[in-house]
């Protein structure tokens, strides 16, 4: 009983934290529990029964397999448990969501006991998570004339697993809870520093917003037991940033409803809202759980008599409250009229939240059931040789005669499945698409593996060209949490068919490369669709969508994703870059100039940014596409010239080859397959058979933005503006300021050069600056710590070969050692240069952090409150984002530099320069 006793000790430990017993996913523990159930005199029998019935993780977990087999024993009378009747055993199987439970149900349905077979068939008719092995059994039994199987297939053909579900209720009563003013980052809902606990849903739920907020939500639930609590981002957008699935899981845990009475801590159907709606990826994740996301528009711009926005002293539009959603307000969502009401008063049209597709997600309890249901219906109809009965809402197909295609529309048209033959689709269409490349990262990967288990998937879809499991978010510190979680994750994903950063067999050195950098290398076709478990899945080739862990799981399992074709915004450039400016300044200026051109309206939000940047190779162009996540864009398309694209593909081939040399390819030779595809694509471009992707000349855009390089005269800094009197203006990425704003006097406590935003050129800039400063002053002295984390090992190797790493070593006070990685997160910093392990480091904020209250100057992407730096007593932490030279110089000086100091420091240094293409980037 050692395993069970250990479990009891763990339960006692969790009680101290206010937690229930951890859900069981291991076969050995559940087997011991079953032994105790069979022993009617066992002192632990009652508890064991409860654990077996209510506390086992479903799907394909080892425990689920043991549970399914024991339920089969009960149904076939091989075991007798008086508390579990045959009917109850079947009910428990119906809640196990596939995998072993489907195998058992098929065994029973195909067995000789007709009564049992009919009961099993009745349950099977409600199930949708069937895979090839399951459908193959049904197909064979149907060919053999099995009558019961014919009934099952006929039910599937009618999609009765969906049609017999209860309809969505007409009126949903909600009570509001203001989670915060301004944009609400998912860091508020699922903090990065608690990433280690995301797979333990109850434990992770403890970090939602704050204990005070949790108490307030519970108080509202007690006061309004018949209503759902709706979390709101007042004067902002809900769910910006990363970690969407864990954020939605936490919201659902506190405000949603149980998915099953027999599955602990998995809740669905949360309701969230924002004045400016919901971040696109977060909204997709809400759909995964069958939830609702509302665009409230309860604050609007105040207009003058000419219809122009009135502005305050800061130049920001003055907002006027149209209606109140203050905490405790009772509202009614009407899913029939698709309106939001306060009593009898109609407040706003919310029809975008209740499209036919979204209504199906709500009815089915999530989008997965719809995806699998459609596939199951298609299979059944094909097997029976009949036409499918229209059950689901047809895909929305928008086709405009005489209108050309944007780049993203072309990609969607090439990859779309199940659309009307010969039909050309434009933005607004809602389609299924095949996915070419998939990425899973390590802090959400554990949830992705859980999602794969819950949907009973065991192997990657054969139509996926390549998939990668990273180790970058836990690269900084190899602590007890990492040791417990990461090897388990890597083994699962390696077995599933992904290329993994860490080899479970120990054949190759553990890689901790930043996930989107690797995905940028292994994407070898600009016509590809990429899905990645990180908001910065924005490639310089193809169109890439950051996604929640569940959508990643779905893409891995099926090779498909469902989404609308977004509108695009075209970005072009004119003028010339100043020689002392870095391309990062162009990236920030793009956001700033766009907001100026459109009166403060972010035309990028929720749309595709089609950036005509043609002459920058993949590494440099990625700096722009990467940042588009902070522009709140849904994705980004990079338009490259033929020669530039070929150069980028050659670079990608070289890096994939390095991965092969390290031993990272699998038995299916996925990496070699990518090189072969890259060779084919290069040949197509060179022969003019299929030139680089470009939009049509008559494509239609939501907006067109022209960035004037001539007016970018100073380094640009994204400032969290932590002391803005308007709380809603803090911690957004929209406050972009020139260097001179700080007057050369703002104290900088720590600098960070790293994250996905930097490439090899940035590390070479650092190397050159250190040499210059040494020559100018006779020594290099840091007045603030400088933390440097290269994005990939390839960059380190290339810097070593080119002599730059030796320079960095010369001036560093710490250098990472993979043979003895840090076991404890750094809590304090000296004024030295730290050469940290490749990976996310400070940008992630889950392991390493700056000291509380620090002002950090960083090349990273995150300036959210508490992400890189937390507040101290009496002093707010700040994460200012800028170019590599600004960060380096700020640590040398201990403050922001003046323009004269900056220009002197970068003289003669080869910064990342950009010259706009003069070729006509239209369809060739």
Automatic annotation (TrEMBL):
One GO CC term, this protein: cytosol
Q: Which key words are in the record?
A: Iron, Iron-sulfur, Metal-binding
Q: Does the keyword Metal-binding apply?
A: yes
**Which Gene3D superfamilies does the entry mention?**
Aconitase, Domain 2, Aconitase, domain 3, Aconitase, domain 4, Aconitate B, HEAT-like domain
In this chain the Aconitase/3-isopropylmalate dehydratase large subunit alpha/beta/alpha domain maps to: 410-894
Q: Which Pfam family is one of those matched by this entry? A: Aconitase_2_N
Superkingdom is: Bacteria
Q: Which residues form a coiled coil?
A: none
**Record bears the keyword Iron:** yes
**What GO biological process term is on the record, naming one?**
tricarboxylic acid cycle
| InterPro entries, per database record | Acnase/IPM_dHydase_lsu_aba_1/3, Acoase/IPM_deHydtase_lsu_aba, Aconitase/3IPM_dehydase_swvl, Aconitase/IPM_isomerase, Aconitase_4Fe-4S_dom, Aconitase_B_HEAT-like_dom, Aconitase_B_HEAT-like_dom_sf, Aconitase_B_swivel
Which residue numbers delimit the Aconitase B swivel domain? 178-405
Task: Write one Gene Ontology MF term.
Answer: aconitate hydratase activity
Which parts of the sequence belong to the Aconitase B HEAT-like domain? Answer: 6-162
UniProt-listed NCBIfam families: PRK09238.1 (NF006690)
Q: PANTHER family given for it?
A: ACONITATE HYDRATASE B
Q: What is this protein called?
A: Aconitase
């Amino acid at each position: 009983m050692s395993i069970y006793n250990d479990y009891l000790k763990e339960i006692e430990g969790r009680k101290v934290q206010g937690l229930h017993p951890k859900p069981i996913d291991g076969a050995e523990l559940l087997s011991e529990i079953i032994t105790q159930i069979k022993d009617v005199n066992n002192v632990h029998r009652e508890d064991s029964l409860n654990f077996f019935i209510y506390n086992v993780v479903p799907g394909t977990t080892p425990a689920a397999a043991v549970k399914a087999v024991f339920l089969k024993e009960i149904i076939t009378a091989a075991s007798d448990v008086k508390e579990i009747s045959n009917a109850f055993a079947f009910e428990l199987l119906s809640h196990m969501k596939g995998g072993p439970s489907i195998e058992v149900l098929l065994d029973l349905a195909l067995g000789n006991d007709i009564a049992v077979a009919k009961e099993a068939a009745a349950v099977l008719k409600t199930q949708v998570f069937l895979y090839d092995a399951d459908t193959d059994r049904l197909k064979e039994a149907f060919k053999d004339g099995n009558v019961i199987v014919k009934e099952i297939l006929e039910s599937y053909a009618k999609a009765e697993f969906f049609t017999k579900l209860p309809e969505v209720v007409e009126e949903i009563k909600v009570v509001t809870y203001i989670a915060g003013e301004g944009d609400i980052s998912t860091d508020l809902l699922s903090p990065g520093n608690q990433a280690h606990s995301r797979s333990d849903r109850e434990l992770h739920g403890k970090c939602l917003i704050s204990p005070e907020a949790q108490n307030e939500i519970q108080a509202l639930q007690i006061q309004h037991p018949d209503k759902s609590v709706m979390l709101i981002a007042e004067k902002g957008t809900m769910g910006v940033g990363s970690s969407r699935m864990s954020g939605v899981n936490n919201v659902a845990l506190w405000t949603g409803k149980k998915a099953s009475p027999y599955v602990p801590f998995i809740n669905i159907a949360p309701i969230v809202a924002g004045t400016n709606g919901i971040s696109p990826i977060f909204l997709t994740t809400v759909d995964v759980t069958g939830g609702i996301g509302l665009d409230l528009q309860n604050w609007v711009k105040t207009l003058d008599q000419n219809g122009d926005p009135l502005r305050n002293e800061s130049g920001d539009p003055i907002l006027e409250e149209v209606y109140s959603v203050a905490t405790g307000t009772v509202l009614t969502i009407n899913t029939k009229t698709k309106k939001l009401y306060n009593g009898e008063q109609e407040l706003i049209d919310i029809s975008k939240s209740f499209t036919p597709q979204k209504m199906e997600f709500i009815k089915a309890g999530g989008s997965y059931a719809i995806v699998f249901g459609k596939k199951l219906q298609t299979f059944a109809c094909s097997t029976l040789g009949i036409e499918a009965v229209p059950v689901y809402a047809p895909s929305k197909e928008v086709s405009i005669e005489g209108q050309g295609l944007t780049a993203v529309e072309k990609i969607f048209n090439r990859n779309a499945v199940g659309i009307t033959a010969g039909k050309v689709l434009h933005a607004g269409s809602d389609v299924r698409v095949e996915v070419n490349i998939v990425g899973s990262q390590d802090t959400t990967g554990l949830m992705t593996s859980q999602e794969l288990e819950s949907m009973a998937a065991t192997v990657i879809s054969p139509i996926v060209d390549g998939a990668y499991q990273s180790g970058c978010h836990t690269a900084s510190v190899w602590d007890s949490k990492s040791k417990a979680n990461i090897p388990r994750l890597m083994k699962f994903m390696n077995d599933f068919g992904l290329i993994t950063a860490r080899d479970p067999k120990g054949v190759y050195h553990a890689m901790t490369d930043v996930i989107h950098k690797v995905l940028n290398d292994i994407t070898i076709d600009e016509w590809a669709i990429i899905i990645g478990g990180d908001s910065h899945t924005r490639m310089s080739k193809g169109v890439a969508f950051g996604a929640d862990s569940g959508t990643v799981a779905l893409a891995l399992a099926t090779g498909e994703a469902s989404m609308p074709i977004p509108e695009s915004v075209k970005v072009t450039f004119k003028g010339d870059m100043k020689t002392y400016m870095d391309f990062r300044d162009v990236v920030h200026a793009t956001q700033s100039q766009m907001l100026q051109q459109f009166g403060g309206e972010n035309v990028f939000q929720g749309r595709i940014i089609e950036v005509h940047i043609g002459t920058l190779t993949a590494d440099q162009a990625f700096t722009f596409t990467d940042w588009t996540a902070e522009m709140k864009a849904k994705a980004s398309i990079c338009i490259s010239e033929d020669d530039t694209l070929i150069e980028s593909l050659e670079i990608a081939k070289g890096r994939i080859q390095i991965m092969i040399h390290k031993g990272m390819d699998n038995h299916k030779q996925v990496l070699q397959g990518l090189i072969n595809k890259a060779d084919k694509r290069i040949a197509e471009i060179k022969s003019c058979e299929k030139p680089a992707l470009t939009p049509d000349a008559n494509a239609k855009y939501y907006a067109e933005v022209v960035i004037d390089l001539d007016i970018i005269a100073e380094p640009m800094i994204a400032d969290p503006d932590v002391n803005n009197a308007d709380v809603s203006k803090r911690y957004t990425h929209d406050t972009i300021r020139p260097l001179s704003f700080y007057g050369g006097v703002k104290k900088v406590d720590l600098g960070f050069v790293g994250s996905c935003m930097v490439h090899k050129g940035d590390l070479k800039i650092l190397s050159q600056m250190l040499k210059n400063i040494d020559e100018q002053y006779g020594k290099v002295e840091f007045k603030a710590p400088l933390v440097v984390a290269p994005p990939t090992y390839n960059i380190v190797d290339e810097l070593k070969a080119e002599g730059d790493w030796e320079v960095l070593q010369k001036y560093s006070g710490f250098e990472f050692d993979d043979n003895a990685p840090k076991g404890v997160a750094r809590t304090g910093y000296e004024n030295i240069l730290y050469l940290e392990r490749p990976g996310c480091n400070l940008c992630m904020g889950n392991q390493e952090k700056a000291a509380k209250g620090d002002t950090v100057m960083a090349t990273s992407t995150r300036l959210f409150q508490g992400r890189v730096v937390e507040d101290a007593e009496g002093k707010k932490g700040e994460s200012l984002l800028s170019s590599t030279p600004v960060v380096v110089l700020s640590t040398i000086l201990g403050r922001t530099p003046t323009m004269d100091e900056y220009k002197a420091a970068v003289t003669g240094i080869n910064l990342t320069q950009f010259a706009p293409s003069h070729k006509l980037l239209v369809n060739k």
